[in-house]
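FIELD: query
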Amino acid sequence: MTDLQIQYFLKVAQHLSYTAAARELFVSQPSLSKQVAALERELGVALFDRSRRSRIALTPAGRLFQQSFQKSVQNFQDTLEQVRLGQKDQALELRVGVAAGWDWGGLTAACGQALLESWPQARILWTAHTFRYLHSALADGALDVIFCPQTGLEGVDGLEVARVAQAEATVYYGEAHPLARRLEDLRGEPLYVLPPEEAPLSTDINRGYFATRLVLPEVVVLPNRESILLALSSGKGFAVFDSMMTLRRNPAYRTLGLGLPIPICGVWKARTPSPLIKPVVQWLAGALGQWEGGWEHQGSEMPTPY
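FIELD: result
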């Protein structure tokens, strides 16, 4: 017998109706009936009396198995809760990756402190790197959860995704730029972008946005963020990053907000077992929500250890 068969049987036994049980389980009635019939064949007894036209009823054997299965399910839930409570007293680690250059230094420290209130033995290991590395490390199991723009998740399957903040697409250009005070001043300037595998959708989104405003920049692909900043410091061209960058506090660069929202998401494998993931995601969502409303934390750029 399978857990699915037991679940379906208990739901039919609760409602004494295949139709109501199927509706609550979001499955088709034939699929439900097939699983219950398979369970009856394996047990060698009829669980339901189907002789009545208006309503089915549990047989004596059905009532006994209902009680037995209910006890088994409750015992499993009780054991699971005990294990989860016991984990709070164990040393737990959560490996978290964020985008290099994000202004999260103070925020991550506060998150770790808040987590200790509920998980005294927990430890969060933060790392900052490129989006390409973060995605690869998550897939390989080197990281448990990452935080990145939603535009970097195109074509990625088997993941849990939770929105934690909304940043703004922001134009960055060098302080030495001779003209730029508004977007139109950048007409004809090169737009420096990261390689497609680093930011799969952002280049197309930016190109379409600028085209609607007749800016039509020359797109120049550079290998990394450092090379883009070096190009900007020459006083020519511009780049588009999100508004959560430490760069926005650097006096060597200026910014223009585009009013385009960029959802920032927490991402983890659907089957990742760590109980720390959701508390961290929920805490950061609340803290970043305050930040969006104007909260100025004393942050610093996180170190990149790779």
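FIELD: remark
The beta strands are 48-49, 57-58, 92-99, 122-129, 145-149, 159-174, 190-193, 218-221, 238-242, 253-269.
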